[in-house]
Amino acid sequence: MASTHRRRVAAQLVVARTMRGILQAAISSDLAGCSTGDYALLDPGGSIGLSERNLLIFATSIILLIIVPTMVMTVLFALRYRESNVNATYLLDWNESKWMRIAIWRAPAIIVVILGYRLTIETRSLDPHRPIEGALPTIRIPAIGLSRK
């Protein structure tokens, strides 16, 4: 019994060290592309670019409201209900619970509605046919479109 426990603990240590190495490699490879240079997407020069940047940041933050808790709960559930945890007990059967399904799907549905509304409003305000508001007078650029065959 003690030898199987030792083998299991040793295997868990190997898995933990491997996962830590993979995480460190992923973080370092992600950070390798970072520099102190100018980011054109996050440092816009005009009002339209600023609106697009704010929209991108808003959408990303709203989506992260679902992604981050999901990732955390995945790890917590995996740790709590692993095979070696004898203290974890299965308390309820939620397979056919209509109210549990409503509770689970309510947050993503609300987020989709919020994103859809905000993206629709912002996108329509950035209509390319609308004149751009600014302090300088509008510049008219004559352009000729040729019919290509």
Report the strand count: 0
The 3D shape can be described as: elongated
Order of helices and strands: HHH
Task: Measure the end-to-end span.
Answer: 81 Å
Q: What multimeric state do the chains show?
A: single chain
From the alpha-carbon coordinates, what is the Rg to the nearest angstrom?
Answer: 26 Å
Report the helical percentage. 55-70%
Please identify the structural class as seen in this structure: mainly alpha
Q: What does this 3D model show about the protein?
A:
With 149 residues, the chain is mostly helical. It has a domain at 42-127. The chain has helices at 2-32, 47-80, 98-125. It is elongated and about 85 Å long. The N and C termini lie far apart (81 Å).
Show the helix and strand layout.
Blueprint: H1 2-32, H2 47-80, H3 98-125
Helix pairs in contact: 2-3
Keywords:
mainly alpha; 0% strand; elongated; single chain; 149 residues; 3 helices
